């Protein structure tokens, strides 16, 4: 799943890192070798 909107929050289910999107550039967020999970739109 690619990033779609500013403000979306993603979490890594391996290490727990969380990120908030500040600029949409497309693509998919990856951490610890796995795609990050969208936790808030």
| Percentage beta strand | 25-35%
Strand order of the largest sheet: 2-1-5
> Which segments are poorly predicted (pLDDT under 50) over 5 or more consecutive residues?
none
CATH topology: Rubrerythrin, domain 2
How many helices in DSSP terms? 0
The CATH architecture would be Single Sheet
Mean pLDDT: 94
What structural class results from the helix and strand content?
mainly beta
What series of H and E elements makes up the topology? EEEEE
For the record, the count of structural domains works out to 1
- Report how far apart the termini are: 13 Å
Largest sheet: 3 strands, antiparallel
Q: Helix proportion of residues, in percent?
A: under 10%
Beta-strand segment tally:
5
User: Class in CATH?
Assistant: Mainly Beta
Q: What is the 3D shape?
A: globular
Radius of gyration computed on alpha carbons: 9 Å
């Amino acid at each position: 799943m690619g990033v779609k909107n500013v403000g979306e929050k993603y979490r890594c289910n391996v290490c727990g890192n969380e990120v908030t999107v500040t600029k949409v550039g497309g693509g998919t967020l990856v951490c610890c070798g796995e795609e990050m999970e969208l936790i808030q739109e």
